[in-house]
């Protein structure tokens, strides 16, 4: 049978492990959120460069057009269209940033719950370690019987949720790319329609 100090040492290692898991998972969530935000910001910047190129291409087509009087009227409406498209592209990024924060917060909350449950179990073991030999065994048996099954289920659910959150990050990135593509296509269609009806 382990000595009292060996039991306490094992329990302290269990507590450290619970805390370490929470810290690692929380750090990973923050880094994932930051990486997604950086990636989204880069996608938005690149899409705004594309927007600028589409505008320049339109202006070049208009300047080469024979109908200068109509061309001037069309080219004056383009800056507002560009501003609206720019705002729409920015909104794709804003929504993504909010969703990334929600996903990361969910990961951190799950990690904190897991730590709390683990620490509660370690505290129950610590209480058992203070009892005399036969009552200590009965106490350990009771704690293990009452907590191991639910703890296993909780850990399994937390790991699944954690995995799902990373899938959510990937889906979020794809959704941003689709949002950007949709907004750029809408702008191109408006510009091309404007050009062909001049």
Comma- or semicolon-separated keywords:
Protein TsetseEP domain-containing protein, TsetseEP, 198 residues, 3 helices, Four Helix Bundle (Hemerythrin (Met), subunit A), mainly alpha
Structure explained in plain terms:
- With 198 residues, the protein is mainly α.
- It has one domain: Four Helix Bundle (Hemerythrin (Met), subunit A), CATH 1.20.120.
- Helix content is 94%, strand content 0%.
- The chain has helices spanning 4-64, 68-129, 133-196.
- Helix 1 runs parallel beside helix 3 (133-196).
- The longest helix is centred in the C-terminal third of the chain and has 64 residues, at 133-196.
- The model has no long low-confidence stretch (mean pLDDT 89).
